Amino acid sequence: MWIGIDDTDSRNAGCTTYIAFRIVSTFADRIISLPRLVRLNPNLKYKTRGNGALSIRIGNRTEETKTVIGKSDGKKISLGLQNNEMEPDFPKTYDNSMIEQVVGIVEEYYEKNQTNTNPGIVFSNKKFDTDIYRNALERDIPVDYIEEILKKTDSIYRKIGSGRGIIGAVSSIAWDRNRTTYELLNYKYPRGGYVDDMVKTIIGKIAESYDSTFNNMEMKEGKVCLFPKDRTPVIYGIRGLVFDDLIQIQEEINSRFPDFDRNYMIFATNQGTDDHILRLESGMELRELSSYEITGYVNELPLRKEGGHLFFGIKYGVTDIKAVAFEPSKGFRDELEKLEIGDHVKLFGSYAKGTIKIEKLELIHPSIIYERRSPLCSRCGSRTSNIGSLKYRCIKCGNVMEPEYVKTNYQRMTMKLEPPAYARRHLSMPWKLENASFRSNEYEF
Ligand code: ATP
């Protein structure tokens, strides 16, 4: 049986991953896959933060060999993970007592009395089609559409409030794990609490010392990016490509700071995979709320506007598109500000109202900058003076000439730019992972 959960937190408290952690801690002996933290369309207005949805897979029996994926109240969480290739040994009927217990856990921990918190819990004996996951990355899916699917597949579901969370719950189950990364989340309920800056730096450096991790620190600014604002049960989250490395990092942290050895768990995720990015082929129309890789030429110079957001224009085929880098991306804007007319760029980001919100950019081919000069007279070799309308007249013989254009010494290199780690989108693949090999098998670590 698959369990999907979403929309249980508010801006100020709670976290759906923590609810998944409680469920996994309770039913570890029946869970057959890593819990999954799946990020969905980053362009939606409903999201509280990172549009994350959770799913868990329950089997009738688990493998003999156990894999430790974390600790709950200081005790190991060990799962008997089944190979993805194997037909999951799902029961034909639903285990109602388990369903009630899971619903009970969600009811205990979701953020109550919040209009924007509308939990959805889904139980399904069938895995949902990957197309639903793709749609959930690219579009705004109506609740009714998901409810239809749930009815057709004889799934059981609970809606609290409007129950909009069923969209994320189903989409998380539908994730194909084609490209997988991992995140170790360390918890203290109800809030992560204060952590000293020195401790943060040590933990950040431990994580950063492993080549398989990403988005840990912004080295230039010495900023650690692992610790979210102290509003939720998450103390820190460490992201990486290699499951075993995350376990080792946690062990190193435990040896320095035993307080962090109580509650943590590793999730399989689609973070850092660019799964949401569609490659835009020439002639394709951009669709509202989808995310793209677009190649074009800068046709409008970068300009900072109110709020510190930086805008410029590109020409993609025959279409003019605006691009924006928002204020929180800080130094990224300074780099983008150096773009020149004619630069050939590839940019990645989500599209809405004629504008791409840039997640990263490659300067593929910088345009060559020419300087306009007054030419020497072609008849007598004397100097010329500017007479307007891009014309120059010889000061001796009156010959009228075109301007001369001279290549400047101002050389720019091709380059790959991205916001600092603390301002990246969860789904966005950092340039560091560009050539990484992502795990795709449920069983492989
Ligand atoms: P997180 O759990 O990381 O805090 P979030 O808080 O940003 O995520 P939620 O509170 O889960 O976001 O709210 C997002 C809401 O949008 C959920 O109700 C989810 O079901 C819904 N949703 C997710 N993807 C889509 C989509 N593609 N179309 C329509 N609704 C969606």
Automatic annotation (TrEMBL):
- Taxonomic classification, please? Archaea, Methanobacteriati, Thermoplasmatota, Thermoplasmata, Thermoplasmatales
Q: What does this protein do?
A: ATP-dependent agmatine transferase that catalyzes the formation of 2-agmatinylcytidine (agm2C) at the wobble position (C34) of tRNA(Ile2), converting the codon specificity from AUG to AUA.
Q: What is this protein called?
A: tRNA(Ile2) 2-agmatinylcytidine synthetase TiaS
Which positions fall inside the TiaS-like TCKD domain? Answer: 3-157
Principal localisation: cytoplasm
Query: Does tRNA processing show up as a keyword for this record?
Result: yes
So what does this thing catalyse? cytidine(34) in tRNA(Ile2) + agmatine + ATP + H2O = 2-agmatinylcytidine(34) in tRNA(Ile2) + AMP + 2 phosphate + 2 H(+)
Record's InterPro entries?
A: TiaS-like_TCKD, TiaS_FLD, tRNA_Ile2__agm2C_synt
This protein's species is Cuniculiplasma divulgatum
CDD domains in UniProt = RPA2_OBF_like
Cite the entry's keywords alphabetically. ATP-binding, Cytoplasm, Ligase, Nucleotide-binding, tRNA processing
State the Gene Ontology BP annotations.
tRNA wobble cytosine modification
What does the record give as EC number?
Answer: 6.3.4.22
Family the UniProt entry places it in? Belongs to the TiaS family.
Molecular function, one GO term: ATP binding
Q: What residues does the TiaS FLD domain cover?
A: 163-276
